Amino acid sequence: MCIVNATFLFCFSDFIVKIASIDDADWRNQVNLAFRAVPTFKEEDEKFIWTVIASVLHLGNIEFVPSADQENCSVKPSDDAVWAAKLLEVSENDLWQALCYRVVAARSEVMRTGHNVETAQRGKDALAKAIYERLFCWIIAKVNEALAFSPGINQKSGSVIGVLDIYGFEIFQENSFEQFCINYCNEKLQQLFINLVLKQEQEEYQREGISWQEIKYFNNKVICDMIEKPSRSIIASLDDACKSPGEVTDKMVLESMNEHLKENPYFKTRAIDEADKSLQFQIDFRIKHYAGDVNYCILGFSEKNKDPLFQDFKRLLFNSKNPLLSNLFPDGAMRITEITKRPQTSASRFRDSMNRLVDILTSKVPFYIRCIKPNDNMMPFLFDDNRVEHQIAYLGLIENIRVRRAGFAYRISYDRFIKRYVYYKAIFDFKLDNIFLYGTIFVLSLC
């Protein structure tokens, strides 16, 4: 399926970490066993998954050779380029053409423009990411299909159990677009926690006349707005740059942020605060997250936000001889002459997906499992008091406990309460519409 003992750039890092207790081959076998335990996965599906992953690894190794004028490029002949085409079940020539050229439709005219090495490299990486992302979503869909309701059960009356497992806050020595997205996600989920657990809880106490001392907490909505508002926000500045004609640099994006957010206390750059020597001029910006201050390097933000998955790639994979892969790219069925809308940027897609996720979570009853990291050294039996206290503080755990203590921590619906104490037969002698409510009141009056 792929070259044995090959070095894949997508798996390479300056810091090679080997963990003695982890055997990669054994883990792969466990994954295969897990696939076989899910009834919706067939043997050909398992083969398809590993084939696609192998194709992504080989795509990562493809290199480009510049033309004499540096304006165009060609694929450097290699085994990786041959293997990528073979695994994707497309012709080598079609793959190389899609990597090095872009077909643009303007009304009835079709023009082909060549990529320079840098543009081809970004396009290739975008293709690899798109394949991997769509494969991942396909796997999730297959798992959900196996866990779906039985045909005879009314879906509306059924219960849904969902598990959301995400990265915590990421604060590295150098933080880029990826850390910005992950930390924005954490901000949104913290805002949901505040609304559901802290804000609405205290509002319920007030409605029901419970005597309690109001608990003060920090509402991070101001930080979320600063990041995601339709205008005068960080994402808006990034998107405006992508829509602008001509070349837009990261420096220009940062200047736009400075202009729109200079009065915001949760945003800072060297241009806003010249005395802050920890920020590099025209390079860094700082967000005062609820979890702490994070410095981001703006370099690469605008390019990563564009994520150029050209229509040529979609057409290429839609025409793959592998029907499973072809089905992952239905948007490649469009004719070349069809003019499409400008695709969403990476930041906008991520923002919209986060808003959809929050809508889903808001409609459910959440149960939180808070993981506290005991130390930053991944050492057993080492408890860093300051590190733990910091996490407890920014997660709002103390405020949560205080709010719970101020009211009634144990909750049960009226109907479940009545079913538990159904032996009080007198309850059901009442001819009331709200039998469960008044039945509960009656039972409690006997206590």
Task: Describe it.
It is a single chain. By secondary structure, this protein is mainly α. Among the domains are: 9-149, Myosin VI head, motor domain, U50 subdomain (Four Helix Bundle (Hemerythrin (Met), subunit A)); 220-299, Up-down Bundle (Methane Monooxygenase Hydroxylase, Chain G, domain 1), CATH 1.20.58; 414-445, no CATH class. It has helices at 24-37, 43-60, 79-88, 92-100, 117-146, 177-207, 221-228, 234-243, 250-261, 301-306, 311-318, 323-327, 346-362, 385-394, 397-406, 414-420, 435-445; strands spanning 64-66, 73-75, 101-106, 109-114, 267-269, 284-289, 292-297. The strands form three sheets. Strands 5-6-7 form a three-stranded antiparallel beta sheet, covered by helices on one side. Strand 3 and strand 4 (109-114) form a beta hairpin. Helix 6 (177-207) runs parallel beside helix 13, helix 6 (177-207) runs parallel beside helix 15 and helix 8 (234-243) packs across helix 9. The N and C termini lie far apart (72 Å).
